[in-house]
Design brief:
heterotetramer; A: 213 residues; mainly alpha; Serine Threonine Protein Phosphatase 5, Tetratricopeptide repeat; C: 333 residues; Rossmann fold; 2 domains; 6-stranded mixed beta sheet; binds adenosine-5'-diphosphate; binds magnesium ion
Chain lengths: 213, 213, 333, 333
Amino acid sequence: MVLTKDVVLTWLETFARDVEENRAYLTELDGAIGDNDHGTNLDRGFRAVLNSLPDERDKPIDGVLKAVGMTLIKTVGGAAGPLYGTVFLRMASAAAGKEALSEADVGAMLAAGTKGIVDRGKAEVGDKTMLDTWAPAVDAFQEAEASGEDLLAALQAAAGAAEEGMKSTIPLVARKGRASYLGERSAGHQDPGATSSYLLFKDLLSAVEGTAG
Amino acid sequence: MVLTKDVVLTWLETFARDVEENRAYLTELDGAIGDNDHGTNLDRGFRAVLNSLPDERDKPIDGVLKAVGMTLIKTVGGAAGPLYGTVFLRMASAAAGKEALSEADVGAMLAAGTKGIVDRGKAEVGDKTMLDTWAPAVDAFQEAEASGEDLLAALQAAAGAAEEGMKSTIPLVARKGRASYLGERSAGHQDPGATSSYLLFKDLLSAVEGTAG
Amino acid sequence: MKKLINNPEDVVKEALQGMAEAYPELIRVDVENQLVVRKEAPVQGKVGIVSGGGSGHEPMHGGFVGKGMLDAACAGQVFTSPVPDQMYTAAKDVNGGKGVLFIVKNYTGDVMNFDLAAEMAQAEDIQVQSVVIDDDVAVQDSLYTAGRRGVGGTVLAEKICGAAAERGDSLDDVANLCRRVNENVRSMGMALTPATVPAAGKPSFELGPNEVEIGIGIHGEPGRRRMELQSADDITEMLAEPILDDLPFKNGDRVLAFVNSMGGTPYLELYIVFNKLHEILKGRGISIARSLVGPYITSLEMQGVSITLLRMDDEMEMLWDAPVYTPALKWKA
Amino acid sequence: MKKLINNPEDVVKEALQGMAEAYPELIRVDVENQLVVRKEAPVQGKVGIVSGGGSGHEPMHGGFVGKGMLDAACAGQVFTSPVPDQMYTAAKDVNGGKGVLFIVKNYTGDVMNFDLAAEMAQAEDIQVQSVVIDDDVAVQDSLYTAGRRGVGGTVLAEKICGAAAERGDSLDDVANLCRRVNENVRSMGMALTPATVPAAGKPSFELGPNEVEIGIGIHGEPGRRRMELQSADDITEMLAEPILDDLPFKNGDRVLAFVNSMGGTPYLELYIVFNKLHEILKGRGISIARSLVGPYITSLEMQGVSITLLRMDDEMEMLWDAPVYTPALKWKA
Ligand SMILES: Nc1ncnc2c1ncn2[C@@H]1O[C@H](COP(=O)(O)OP(=O)(O)O)[C@@H](O)[C@H]1O
Ligand SMILES: Nc1ncnc2c1ncn2[C@@H]1O[C@H](COP(=O)(O)OP(=O)(O)O)[C@@H](O)[C@H]1O
Ligand SMILES: [Mg+2]
Ligand SMILES: [Mg+2]
Ligand SMILES: [Mg+2]
Ligand SMILES: [Mg+2]
């Protein structure tokens, strides 16, 4: 089973819709420990992505992903803009030259996105950021893939780990991003970036399920 | 019957106390159609007068009145400072060279004070100012005095007219002072300066009653 | 009352003391008499310019003392006019032999106290002229009333006259120029929130969560009318039009456009008002020759804005551009 | 929400448009890209200085564009960092052949967006250096956190580096100077009232009628602690002492003392804070060499104050005094 460009497009469209639906929720999470704008920021970016997709859909996968990354960087601002932008640019590089992505390719692509977050944001797992979703999700994917699971099963493992990673941020004290100014007062709240990242994994799974089903 | 310096001193002390007691009331009246400070202003001035009186009480009547006028001008500010200050300076001039004041002298003194208000403030009767208390009060005094009444009776007439004059300001639309900015919205409120002026006439009467009784 | 103060009675003196410490190179402060005096006053051969009024309108007037603007400012209690002794002392402090101009805002109390001070100064052979500024079109003017209030136009008159005095103009000339500025300047203001006088402890009026007051004065005096909050564009029109129609300003006029914060309104909103004002003026063929945007004549922490337009001639433009070196206005010096 | 605005989404663009109309002699504004650019940019043979950040802190940064200070400012949405395209475009606009300095306030978003812009500019062979300002002692600093926020020190760094660039210093020298300013500057702020982001429509936090927040950021981020309102003197101590102890400032130091309004606090209160600050510094043998008092780095209409102290050396003093000609800071020019 491979990840085709059509599935990638579905994934992006699903996520854009999901962000719009969860805009208020994501913003509220950010209000508690940040500056009350994560949902607004991401939604601005993915509305721009949706607008530009018609012009980009004829490109290969890496071209699409690169365009998404550029659009996010141009429109989101804040911390989320460079972070998600870098994620998509790095995923594009990993997917370069490929018509469709095998399980191993998808694992490499997601790992490249994770590395982008670390390079850009210098966070470690446990700092209460989106990395707390990405790192375990990618680990779970690669483990499943290494033990021979197919794309769907590996993504199910990844989405499950993403959800746990997201929830793991609740008790943490933030050490990166705006929430870190709060010190101990940041504990007890779920990180907004970790939450939107979980949605991204969940939507990748459901895009693949859609084609598989 | 004459107005002695001791009675003048009693008058000033009584009025100072009266202003202190009525500070909040006078300020409230000013709040409705002005800037909420008439009681505070006058009280600041008459506290200063009380403080300086021990040094002034050996002077003749005009010396005492002049010192009061100067103190008010130096300490009150706003409209009331120059107005009341001028009243006392003009009364001092009218009383110059006299050890004690006859009925005619008191009438001339009060008339000089009234003229001071007009000279300084350019108001006419009916403009909703302290003049609406002073003008009828002085008229009443001089009428009583001309028809042969003694000081006490003439002051009774004056205080009665002062009270009526004060009340006459209620329906008026202000044409002078800060209340004039309100236009029609100033009607229905008693003028603060007319009110403090009524107290001044009432306290002169009671100071004379105190000696007469 | 939420304020950064200590005792309400000490507000004015402590603030003056703070100014003295912040601007020792520009001013000296007589805290006892509540005077802010230009450091090098009296400047020989220059007309001295003295203004003053109640405190709570900072930076006016103390913030305008210095080279090219005021020689002295007299600070009254909050929203209460100063007393004649202050202006008299200031006149003596700044008289450099060419006389002294009093720039007075048209409030009964201010006018009378300055009048008394002028009499006192003249009695000591100091030449004094007084010019009363009355630019607030929100107030009905008539021969029989106290007339219009002095507001934003005062700031412009002080700058322009300060420059004229600095170049050596005579007292008559500076006073006439001040009258000319007053004849060509009009203002109007509005409030989103009231101000609280520290000694009073509560706001001078109340406004509902959606109410604004149009035609407000700078002491929290009520305005022309109270209404529902509207868009910045609509409010700008409500302020600009009475101003424009009053003078009236005409096609081809060049103006100084002054958008002033009443104290608590941020620059972001002032610029939005300026943007609309620019459009309105453009629509009437009036060009903006100079501009001033910021908190210059305030009413403590009041949120709101006032607009002042001055029809400028070449001389006023030149004098506006002349060097000024004060705490609140500084350029070319 | 009581504000002088039209549509919340148009706030930034309309305000930029207003600035353009108010200061045509100083700046040009690219409303589309939300850039304020020095009128005569690029200045050949001069290092270009670019700063930027979320809007709502006016006059910072757009009000500091002009001769002797910034060459360009990038305005994000209210309280949201601008995007790399803006800083990249600004760098191209102001590069006069000697490279471009980015002055960045230490917020994760600002830092990452400026980093991306720097990469983009370098890819086009524009020499770029970035200096991150992190002067807010209210935030615990450590290797493992996002570190301190950039606040009031930014204004001083922009002025001083602007003067150095103006006299022809190299990019390395201006960047090193900027680091030196950052190493010698410390700030802390407090709020009496919260601010409301227009798009959000309600305040970012709530404070009781007698509560204040100590150690606030400029976006309404929470501070060190919440407490009962206290006297101006006590609050000044609570802000000054952590600042003084942090560097630490020492007996004999000369400082620039900057008392800043968060937007809604009037000058009267700022001067009272300045008065107490002066006393505290005097008590520690620290002298005030220069001062700045007013709303310069704000948080919309928030009432509150921040204190910034910069330990100055002779060069910084000279550069501070050098001519500056921008909407919000102007002297000798
Ligand atoms: N250094 C970092 N590394 C990884 N993720 C980060 C970092 N800083 C912030 N984030 C993520 O960004 C999210 C906040 O995004 P957003 O609210 O859009 O930006 P801003 O904080 O600038 O307002 C946080 O919830 C966190 O997940
Ligand atoms: N032109 C005037 N002539 C006579 N009395 C006046 C005039 N203007 C004001 N007043 C009196 O002064 C009073 C207000 O005094 P006060 O509140 O102390 O001064 P201010 O108005 O400056 O605050 C008014 O109630 C009115 O009686
Ligand atoms: Mg955020
Ligand atoms: Mg009054
Ligand atoms: Mg008053
Ligand atoms: Mg943000």
